[in-house]
Amino acid sequence: MICALTGGTGGAKFIQGLQAVLPPQELVIVVNTGDDLRWWGLHVSPDLDSVLYALAGCLSRERGWGLEGDTFHCLERMKELGAPAWFQLGDRDLATHLARTQLLAEGRPLSQATAKIAAAAGVGARILPMSDDPLATRVHTTDGRDLAFQEFFVRERCQPPVRAVHFLGAQDSRPAPGVLDAIAGAGAVLIAPSNPITSIGPILAVPGIRRALRETSAPVVAVSPIVGTAAVSGPAGALMAAHGLPVSIAGIAEAYADFLDVLIADPADAGSAAELRRPGLQVHCVPSIMKSDDDKAALARAALQLALPDLALANAP
Ligand code: FO1
């Protein structure tokens, strides 16, 4: 069994690649929920949904989030009614949030709601929220504001300079059922090319998860979301800098230093990769920009082969 940790849209692409080369029953995905928000009275879990839609083959290619071909009539009507509209929910996407909100209101934990929605969508891999407890990523700006993650990311388009990122509720959160067992029992743990601060950071902030990564006998392999001195997409660079990490593959290695065995960097970073190698840390260069389905599968295949050289993989796509 392979356990992958992910968040964000780059992470979802990598998970799609894993699905192309692994049987679904061998894949357990632990997903960031620090980006979750209450919107129009509904519980929205963007990263869970990006993984769900990616695996169900219906993630919007153009936007990287929401459903392919969705419409936004409800959004237009909400605008007319004077509701906030800076966070856009598509009409068919709304059904996911309605279903989730209803399941939660019936008293089911997020992990069960997620399993039910994933099964209905025909997804065979196991998708686990990092926690059933609320943990909210908050972004503290240099002008003294404390923004919810989506306020920073979507409403303010990552423009405000960041002082720090904080995970509200982290100390009282517990790993969702199955998360620690998946890490401990995996043949390999893969960390997707996700933002280390706001996508993987919240997962690591749940008490017990970081220790499980340190203690697992499985190799822990991370794919760098940084190529050269910039993130492939999103605000990872600015957020890493705010946390005192170099914006480079060295910063990724530092963020995961206590549990990382193998770092996958883009060939553009071959020079820095050579400097970073040391006993206990392998650094391999593999093309990591995922534009096509072939790119996603090739990166997933390379990560799995580096983690488990004897693993038999499907030829797809
Ligand atoms: N991203 C945007 O840039 N603008 C949006 O209006 C927006 C809406 C949205 C709705 C549902 C969903 O699942 C994702 C959505 N996203 C939107 C993406 C979301 O902000 C990101 O996926 C993550 O939270 C960061 O990785």
Any overview of this molecule?
Helix 1 packs parallel to helix 2 (46-56), helix 4 (91-105) crosses helix 5 and helix 7 (179-185) packs parallel to helix 9 (209-215). Helices cover 38% and strands 18% of the residues. The two termini are 20 Å apart. The strands form four sheets. It has a seven-stranded parallel beta sheet with strand order 5-2-1-9-10-13-14, sandwiched between helices. A three-stranded antiparallel beta sheet has the order 7-6-8. The protein has 317 residues and is α/β, with parallel strands linked by helices. The chain has a domain at 2-36 and 124-134 and 171-307: Rossmann fold. It is built from 13 helices and 14 strands. It has helices spanning 8-21, 46-56, 73-80, 91-105, 110-120, 149-155, 179-185, 201-205, 209-215, 236-242, 249-255, 270-276, 293-307; strands at 2-6, 27-31, 37-39, 42-44, 126-129, 136-141, 146-148, 162-168, 188-191, 220-223, 226-227, 230-231, 262-265, 282-285. The longest helix is centred in the N-terminal third of the chain and has 15 residues, at 91-105. The site of ligand FO1 has 17 residues, from helix 1, helix 2 and helix 6.
Give the helix/strand layout:
Elements: E1 2-6, H1 8-21, E2 27-31, E3 37-39, E4 42-44, H2 46-56, H3 73-80, H4 91-105, H5 110-120, E5 126-129, E6 136-141, E7 146-148, H6 149-155, E8 162-168, H7 179-185, E9 188-191, H8 201-205, H9 209-215, E10 220-223, E11 226-227, E12 230-231, H10 236-242, H11 249-255, E13 262-265, H12 270-276, E14 282-285, H13 293-307
Parallel strand pairs: 1-2, 1-9, 2-5, 9-10, 10-13, 13-14
Antiparallel strand pairs: 3-4, 6-7, 6-8, 11-12
Helix pairs in contact: 1-2, 1-13, 4-5, 7-9
Bound molecules: ligand FO1.
